[in-house]
């Protein structure tokens, strides 16, 4: 009886330990990581469309809109950043808004619209990543 109790207790401690370990893992991947991965997903979908020469206007617009929406969390994901970082973030917003307004209807227009966005991702990464 006593050993059965100890076994149950041991299992419970094991489960609690696992939960703690999982929380620690999540802390190593902060929100900034998820935000960047979400932006990479939408930017990646756009450049894949250009590469495949399959540029659906409505789909492009949706990915650009999601890219813009995701950026609104940059301040939350990177608290306490300096002014040049904020300038890069503002530049990204500007370029993404321009892409929305361009409403690229074909691959040539989409390629032209996402080029300045990609350049801004790169220029911020060169300084901060
Ligand atoms: C204002 C600066 C800035 C801009 C603009 C920016 N990034 Fe980042 N990015 C960072 C920083 C800083 C990191 C590393 C910090 C982190 O991942 O927590 C990063 C990391 C990443 C990562 C690696 C994520 C990880 O944790 O493994 C990806 C992917 C990424 N960015 C994609 C993009 C894409 C795509 C764009 C453009 C649409 C973009 N970024 C624009 C600052 C920026």
TrEMBL record:
GO terms for biological process: electron transport chain. GO terms for molecular function: electron transfer activity; heme binding; iron ion binding. SUPFAM superfamilies: Cytochromes. Pfam families: Cytochrom_C_2. PROSITE patterns: CYTCII. InterPro entries: Cyt_c/b562 (IPR010980), Cyt_c_II (IPR002321), Cyt_c_prime_subgr (IPR015984). This is Cytochrome C. It comes from Dyella japonica A8. The lineage of its organism: Bacteria, Pseudomonadati, Pseudomonadota, Gammaproteobacteria, Lysobacterales.
